[in-house]
User: Which sequence fits this backbone?
């Protein structure tokens, strides 16, 4: 999913 | 979460702790680029603002706080506590040559033109070049203490493991973060030269790394 704006990585 | 990302985060934590303890115990930041450490503190600050807006997991929150605290504590040691041991004349990389293009690019190439998203993009681009002042300083002085090379090894390894994490996530959950992946590849490429020297010099027990 390109372009997601929730980032779950450090 | 997958093993590559967990190992990557642990390598990142180990790297930051190695550097902090080295400075703290030797009471000296000789050979360490304060500029790179300031850039890393800036990377964490601009990336972890979502600490206040979204909760992902206890692990995520705890690690973000730990990284922020250790990054600022390291900058404090270099520029305040042990500033008399800081080699500012060797730490001469022009960071504005990094900050301006990175800031410009984060406005041009991002997932959403929103403040938090642009700051996150800025932190991703900045992290890929933040180590350059440190690598430049080592080429300038022509050597690095072995503890500093271990710090750089784990720091380089962390993002290389993240590349494996992105391959894994792409194949298992269709996840693909183009900005993070491209920046991560660039970041890891910057370490290749160092990795070669690390494996051929430091791990052969020659202790200090002296550049040819």
Assistant:
């Amino acid at each position: 999913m390109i372009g997601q704006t929730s980032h779950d990585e450090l | 979460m997958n093993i590559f990302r967990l190992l990557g985060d642990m390598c990142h934590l180990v790297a930051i702790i190695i550097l902090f303890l080295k400075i703290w115990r030797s009471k000296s930041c000789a050979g360490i680029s304060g500029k790179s450490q300031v850039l890393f503190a800036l990377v964490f600050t601009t990336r972890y603002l979502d600490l206040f807006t979204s909760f992902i997991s206890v692990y995520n929150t705890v690690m973000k706080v730990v990284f922020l605290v250790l990054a600022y504590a390291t900058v404090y040691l270099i520029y305040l506590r042990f500033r008399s041991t800081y080699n500012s004349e060797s730490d001469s990389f022009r960071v504005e040559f990094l900050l301006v293009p990175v800031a410009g690019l984060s406005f041009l190439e991002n997932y959403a033109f929103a403040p938090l998203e642009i700051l996150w993009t800025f932190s991703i681009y900045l992290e890929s070049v933040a180590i350059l002042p440190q690598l430049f300083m080592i080429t300038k002085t022509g050597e690095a203490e072995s503890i500093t090379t271990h710090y750089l090894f784990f720091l380089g390894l962390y993002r290389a493991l993240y590349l494996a994490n992105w391959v894994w996530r792409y194949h298992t959950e269709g996840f693909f973060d183009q900005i993070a992946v491209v920046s991560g590849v660039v970041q890891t490429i910057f370490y290749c030269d160092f990795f070669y020297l690390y494996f051929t010099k430091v791990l052969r027990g020659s202790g200090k790394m002296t550049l040819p």
